[in-house]
Amino acid sequence: MKIVMINGQNHKGSTYHAGKLLIDAITIDKQVKEFFLPRDLNHFCLGCYACIEDETKCPYFPEKNIIMQEIEQADLLVFTTPNYCMAPSAPMKAFIDLTFTYWLSHKPRECMFNKKAVVISTTAGAGAREAIKPVARTLAYWGISDIKKFGFTVQAMNWEGVSAEKKLKIKRTLSRQAKILDKNKNKNKKPNVSFKTKLLFNMFAGMQKANMGSSPTERKYWEDKGWIGKERPWKNK
Ligand SMILES: Cc1cc2nc3c(=O)[nH]c(=O)nc-3n(C[C@H](O)[C@H](O)[C@H](O)COP(=O)(O)O)c2cc1C
What pLDDT does residue 237 have? Predict the structure, then answer.
C-alpha cells in the first residue's frame, strides 16, 4: 500500500505522532512518503488564475507537483493538522488553496476516486472538528468518498505533555482504523464511490456542459475525458 502523509506543520508534535500511530499500526506491506508544510511548499496562492488555463503556469508548480505526483500515486492519504484558532493550520490552508484545480468543479483526477483518506487533528481543548472539516471537505471535492476523521483532545502543547492514558486511547482508536485498512487491502477491496460523490460530479458535469465552468480549457478537459457525455471517472476502474 502506498501511503502519503501530508502534515500541516513542520514539527513532530501531537498531531504528527497521532498520524504516525495510524501508519505504524498498518501491518500490510507499505511505502510511506511524508511531506511537511510549509517546509515542502512554502507559498500562498496569488490568485493569478494562471492554473485555470495551464496548471504548469502556477509560479509554484515545481514544488507543488512533487507533492501532487506522490498523492496521485497513493492508495491512502493521511492528512494531519493541529487545531489553530478553530481551523486547520495556515500552511494546510495554503496547500488547499494551491491545489484548487483538483476540485470536481475544475479538473478532477480519475485516480482520486480509488483512494482512501484519513484526516487527523489534535487540539488542546476544543475545535479539532473545525480543523478537520475544511481538509475533509477538500478531499471530498477531489473525488474521494472514503474519508475517515479523527480529532483528539490532548490538553497539551506538545506530544511530551500528553498523558500516557491519552496516548494509549489515541493508539487504540487508530489501531482499530489500521486493522480496517489492512483487512480491506488484503481483500483487495476498492473504496465505493458514494452517492454524494457521484451527485456532485454529475452536477459539475452539467455545469461544464452548460459552459458555466471557469474557462474553455476547463471545458475541453471535461470533453476530452468524455465526462460531458456518459463517461465517468469511476467506471472500468
Ligand atoms: C496558533 C495556535 C492556535 C491554537 N488554537 C487553539 C484553539 O483554538 N483551541 C484549542 O483548544 N487549542 C488551540 N491550540 C493548541 C493546539 O491545538 C494543541 O496544542 C495541539 O495539540 C497542537 O498540536 P501539535 O503538538 O501537533 O502542534 C492552538 C495552538 C497554537 C500554536
Answer: 60
